[in-house]
Amino acid sequence: MSRGRRPAERGRPVAAGPSEFDDPTFSEEQGVRYLHFGSPWIQGAMKVRSPFSLVLEYTRQMMAWLLFLDPPEGQEAIGTLGLGAGSLVRFCLKHTDSLVHAVEWNPRVTAACRAYFRLPAESDRFIVTHADAGEWVQDIAHRGSCRALMVDLYDHQARGPVRDSVAFYRGCRQVVSAHAHQAGVVTVNLFGAHESFELNRRHLDEAFDGRVLVLPEIEEGNRVAIALAGPPLRIDARTLLARADEVEQRYGLPARRWARSLVPGLGRL
User: What's the average model confidence in pLDDT over 193-221?
Assistant: First the structure.
């Protein structure tokens, strides 16, 4: 979820279901189609002539887990909590051979993605589950099901993530923590200049034992946090920058810029 102005308050309560405010709406400008929930807030975007590219900068940053992991193989998946316009799903299916599992609370969003945003059909590589992300991450059946998990959970109010408790982030950690000897990474879309940011940062730090790095705030206000689970990483600046070169060349993502901003925090990992 990207924004053009500062939000003011928190989102929907845990028990609420989809309402008329969560009906997808659309706009299109200069070849880019946007998803909204009846407001100016942008919930996702797709370049019509290049649907597999990542239009919004924060969605590119959500792929920063590639600095620390190769795309998973076998039954371990790349997970997304919150479907949006399906941008991350399309990108991962195009550029990796991994299983991709999307968890989306609102079936109307999924239907809109299929009708207007070229969401691929479900297959042996792509699964959509309609469930509350807060409940899904707590289900023991999903423990260790993903190596990388991208969390982008906003409603029509766009007032900070709608799932942000320590328990929720601990659940995310469990989803990427299959084995003690394997690393797992969670990326989370946050807003920098908003009261929800410090709350989420504290909760992430508690859930991941302080192993959290945050990319610089972008112009739209988004800040992407990167939380690591599993064994401590022995990684220095040279290694990270070399990995960034590989990611940038292979995926066309601005990974060198990410890596340079993360170097001062490597001691936390």
Answer: 93
